[in-house]
Specification:
Layout lengths: L1 E7 L5 E7 L4 H7 L17 E6 L2 E2 L10 H5 L2 E3 L4 E2 L3 E4 L12 E14 L2 E8 L12 E5 L6 E5 L9 E6 L5 H8 L6 E8 L11 E6 L4 H13 L6 E7 L8 H10 L3 E7 L18 H4 L5 E6 L1 H13 L6 E7 L5 E8 L2 H22 L5 H15 L2 E2 L2 E2 L2 H18 L3 H8 L3 H8 L10 H14 L2 H23 L55 H10 L2 E5 L4 E5 L2 H8 L5 E2 L18 H9 L5 H4 L3 H17 L2 E3 H18 L6 H20 L7 H21 L5 H10 L5 H32 L2 H8 L3 H12 L5 E6 L3 E3 L2 E3 L4 E5 H4 L34 H18 E6 L6 E2 L10 E3 L1 E6 L3
Parallel strand pairs: 1-7, 14-15, 14-17, 15-16, 17-18, 23-29
Antiparallel strand pairs: 1-2, 3-5, 3-7, 4-6, 8-9, 8-13, 9-12, 10-11, 10-13, 18-19, 20-21, 22-23, 24-26, 25-33, 26-29, 27-28, 30-33, 31-32
Length: 920
């Protein structure tokens, strides 16, 4: 099952994608090779924020800093988390060019052309690529005028499923397109247009519709009616008022009559503005709008016509005090150009302001009436409170219209009882009742027990308790605003995700202690495990047994280092919460950051720098390198097989990852070896500066040499206008968006991020095949399992072991209080083995659901090189499955681990395997 998602870009272009059931919009866009704004893909950074204009969806998991409640209620979404449950229209905050898509071009031939009147022409075209054209009823295209290089914008008058497309256009005496159609067009003529475009289109029908068309502005409504008729009759009434200037402008009336026969709930009227017309209906469209059609404001109005008409209707609605639930309009000029499209809704900020003013007035009324109401008045007040209960059951309204009336009478009672004329006058000017009537629906879940609050307010008056009355009114205002916020969201109530069940807080064995817990070296570790240390001395190179013990016995472990205490979090829930809360767990553990490495920055510095590097690592950006990666990988694995095996780190993973990132940065092949040396040394230098890790003794000098080399390389790349990552960073530097220091160090970071994660993940893929050789034949038989294998490798033996944070405030984790300024290490690889999250987490199982694993981190600091690491590992996995028969760890060479660096790695430094070639 899939849903059609319409992506509408800032330049008016629209593009249609299919979103699979349970798939995020961002993933669907990437699958369609559309580069919408995207970064962390975890609902943390907010880069992918967009607006859902119509449709139902689940918002997904995100942090408030990325999407506030007000934004969510206003229809904003994060495309990386949004999962549609119906067809949706999503407005993307980017141009179509920036997303790598442009309006499609459609070609065909004219099949019919008719001048309907002196002022209107219709033509129909058969397209060569009709199956590729998808549009929303009401949208337009830019038609190239035959024989010229100019275009004109025309709305479809045919529905989205019609075999041929048709247009209704105004016949302008000197118009370029009009002249062609009127004087020269004939069946068989070629026609070309680009599109579709525009935000004027039919939304899902949830309430009565009022269509207002002026002249050839009837075209989009014919398309909408065709769509409605194809979908089947609807229960909501639809009324169209077609306004023209003179009798001769009354065109396509037979089509309207046909739609009236097909659609039981559709009615229409044509009106002629010329007072001398003999036509029975005369005047402007506004003179023929009835109260029933406005439905007390609970109506969606669509308006298309020339600018004066649009402004006249908008002015009339304002003068009449009519606030439709939704108002969509499109203006067009006589020359065939769309001038403006727009829409108006109830603004949540206006609603909140009105409810806040009602609160203030009601508090004033309480002050004036407390202790002054008679027994009869109190009885009436109680009766009004009880009356609202008849229209509410549980958390739902049973009759919104009658509830609105009863609720208004209840709230008005105290105001009028005050006898204060200015207060009463001001209260009656509020739009609260109007807003409630237009927004509430039976499917909206009520926040709080509003009926009981009505009764509680009466009780406060009966007891003469003014403080209780004020408290009830204040609480009632909060709950009323929250209910309205739900009602005004652009999603249905059912589209909101169900709240995730909250696990019972993890209990730490030291939670009852008033003093700090003991250090790691003071604890009773199992005999086979040495106490866990801040810096690995070789005793914890494969740390998973340490992690297992820590999760169960010390989920918040305190370790002693030379400069400060360091706290290690090992359980999934604790790590997940911390890594997604950068305000409390800051990445700026060294201030100011000594190097321009993204992992050392919080926003806004991190945001600015990541925007420079991140686009080059997106899946669509690295896809062109896939063929070369596969070529290199195949040559390396053939050499490995030819000699019966070897060190997969030195003989395969490192040369593959270094060659790939070198090509992406655009450095010469002959410099790859020294780039690898400098990269390792700079990583050591980085760790020593940022995390108090031991260095190599020569790391600082090597890092400076690396930076000098990269500066020289970027000078060259800038002059050659290289389109590589290095060239991109160079242009940012030369254009003043980065300093020289930032450019050099950021380029170094990109190189390290691009190969280090890949080296570890690829090596661990070999290891898992060696430990579970049956998976080779399984993936050989079903290559689709390769992706599941890679994700499970990333979970089970992830590329990022740990990340460092510093608390900005005192906080409690698993019952242990961490002071402000505490240095905290989040053990991602331990979290990935937590059986509370992943059943039997210490077992490698490619059939498990790995969603939510932290193998590449999470949030704004999610591994920059993740897409590249996964691509290279996926290519490697498929090659092993195709080419290797038997694979095993070499018993003569035990696995050796990276040691000493306390930044991220605890992967293999050397990993030897034995393997043989598969003969098909």
């Amino acid at each position: 099952m899939s849903h059609q998602v319409t992506l509408r870009f800032e330049d008016g272009a629209t593009h249609f994608i299919q979103c699979l059931n349970g798939e995020s919009v961002a993933d669907a866009a990437l699958r369609a090779k559309i580069a919408i704004p995207l970064d962390c893909r975890d609902g943390v950074c907010g880069t992918c924020k967009a607006t859902c204009e119509s449709g139902n969806f689940a918002l997904g998991d995100y942090v408030p800093e990325a999407l506030s409640d007000d934004e969510a209620n206003a229809g904003h979404v994060l495309t990386c988390q949004m999962r549609p449950s119906s067809d949706c229209v999503v407005q993307i905050a980017a141009t179509s060019d920036a997303a790598g898509v442009s309006n499609a071009t459609f070609t065909g031939k004219i099949t019919a052309c008719e001048q309907l009147s002196a002022t209107a022409i219709t033509f129909t075209a058969e397209l060569e690529n009709r199956s590729e054209l998808t549009f929303l009823a009401g949208q337009y295209v830019n038609v190239q005028v035959p024989g010229s290089n100019q275009t004109r914008s025309y709305s479809f008058s045919s529905g989205p499923s019609a075999k041929e497309v048709s247009f209704l256009i105004r016949n302008v005496p000197q118009g370029l397109m009009s002249s062609y159609l009127r004087d020269r067009a004939k069946p068989g003529d070629a026609i070309t247009f680009r599109g579709p475009m525009g935000s004027f289109y039919l939304r899902p029908i949830q309430r009565p519709l009022l269509f207002l068309a002026g002249g050839t502005g009837l075209a989009p409504f014919l398309s909408m009616l065709d769509k409605i008729a194809d979908d089947g009759d609807v229960s909501q009434p639809i009324h169209l008022i077609f306004g023209v200037t003179n009798d001769e402008d009354r065109v396509e009336l037979a089509k309207l009559e046909e739609y009236a026969r097909r659609l039981a709930n559709f009615t229409w009227r044509c009106t002629v503005a010329n007072p001398d017309s003999p036509y029975p209906y005369k005047g402007y469209v506004t003179q023929h709008i009835t109260a029933s059609q406005l439905n007390d404001g609970d109506v969606d109005i669509y308006l298309c016509g020339p600018p004066p008409m649009v402004e006249a209707v908008r002015g009339w609605l304002a003068d009449e005090g009519v606030r439709p639930r939704n108002f969509y309009y499109e203006k067009f000029a006589g020359a065939g150009q769309v001038v403006q499209t727009g829409e108006e809704h109830i603004a949540l900020s206006d609603v909140d302001d009105s409810f806040d003013l009602r609160l203030a007035l009601e508090l004033g009324a309480v002050q004036l009436t407390m202790g002054r109401l008679s027994g009869a008045q109190l009885a009436d007040f109680r009766q009004l409170a009880d009356a609202t209960a008849a229209f509410v059951t549980g958390k739902r309204f049973t009759d919104v219209a009658r509830y609105v009336q009863a609720n208004h009478a209840f709230h008005l009672f105290l105001i009028e009882a005050s006898g204060n004329t200015p207060l009463i006058t001001l209260y009656k000017q509020l739009a609260v009742q109007d807003y409630i009537g237009r927004a509430l629906r039976e499917d909206i879940e009520i926040v709080g027990d509003i009926v009981q609050q009505h009764r509680d307010l009466v009780s406060a008056f009966e007891y003469g308790d003014i403080n209780a009355a004020r408290e009830v009114i204040a609480r009632h205002a909060i709950h009323s605003k929250a209910t309205m916020s739900r009602a005004l969201g652009n999603k249905s109530a059912s589209s909101a995700p169900a709240p995730a069940p909250q696990p019972e807080p993890a209990r730490c064995p030291f939670s009852a202690m008033a003093e700090l817990p003991p250090y790691s070296h003071e604890m009773n570790w199992p005999q086979e495990l040495q106490p866990f240390k801040v810096v690995d001395d070789g005793s914890q190179g494969d740390p998973y047994e340490h992690y297992r013990w820590m999760r169960e016995n010390a989920p918040v472990l305190r370790c002693q280092s030379a400069t400060s205490d360091v706290w290690f979090l090992s359980r999934y829930d604790d790590v997940w919460q911390a890594i997604r809360n950068p305000k409390l767990f800051s990445s700026e553990v060294v201030s100011p950051p000594p190097l321009t490495f993204l992992t050392l920055f919080d926003a806004p510095g991190h945001t600015r720098l990541r925007k420079v590097a991140q686009p080059s690592f997106m899946p669509l950006a690295i896809e062109p390198f896939a063929a070369e990666i596969e070529r290199r990988a195949e040559a390396l694995i053939d050499a490995l097989i030819a000699k019966g095996g070897g060190d997969v780190v030195e003989d395969f993973a490192i040369p593959l990852s270094i060659a790939t990132i070198s090509a992406m940065i655009d450095v010469p092949d002959e410099d790859e070896e020294k780039m690898k040396f400098w990269s390792d040394e700079t990583f050591s230098y980085f760790g020593r500066l940022a995390r108090n890790a031991p260095g190599t003794g020569t790391d600082e000098q090597s890092a400076m040499a690396f930076f000098a080399y990269l500066k020289e390389a970027m000078e060259r790349l800038y002059l050659s206008n290289s389109q590589s990552i290095g060239g991109h960073i160079a242009r940012m530097w030369k254009e003043g968006l980065l300093s020289e220091k930032e450019a050099k160090e950021l380029c170094a970071f990109v190189f390290i991020a691009g190969h280090d994660t890949t080296t570890i993940l690829v090596a661990n893929a070999f290891r898992m095949f060696a430990e579970q050789p049956h998976l080779v034949s399984r993936i050989r038989q079903n290559e689709a399992d390769a992706e599941r294998f890679v994700e499970e490798v990333a979970r089970y033996r992830g590329t990022v072991q740990r990340v460092s944070r510093m608390t900005t405030e005192e906080t409690t984790v698993a019952g242990v209080t961490l002071p402000k300024g505490a240095v905290v290490r989040l053990l991602l690889s331990s979290a990935n083995r937590d059986s509370r999250k992943f059943a039997d987490g210490d077992t490698f199982n490619i059939d498990r659901d790995t969603s939510g694993h932290l193998g590449f981190g999470n949030g704004i600091h999610k591994c920059l090189g993740q897409p590249l690491a996964k691509l290279e590992t996926l290519i490697t996995t498929r090659l092993i499955a195709r080419k290797v028969a038997d694979i095993a760890l070499d018993p003569a060479h035990p696995v050796e681990y990276v040691r000493g660096n306390n930044l991220t790695n605890s992967g293999p430094a050397h990993l030897y395997v034995q393997l043989s070639r598969f003969k098909s």
